[in-house]
Amino acid sequence: MSENEQMGKDETQPAAGEQEQPSVAAAEAAQDTTTDTEASPVVQEEVKASAEDLAKELEMARAKASENWDMLMRAKAETENLRKRHERELENAHKYGLDRFVNDLLQVRDSLELGHQAAQDEAADLAKLREGTELTLKLLTDVMERFGVELIDPEGEPFSHEQHQAMMMQPKEGVEPNTVIQVLQKGYSLNGRLLRPAMVIVSPSA
Question: Are strands 193-196 and 187-190 parallel, antiparallel or unpaired?
Answer without folding.
Answer: antiparallel
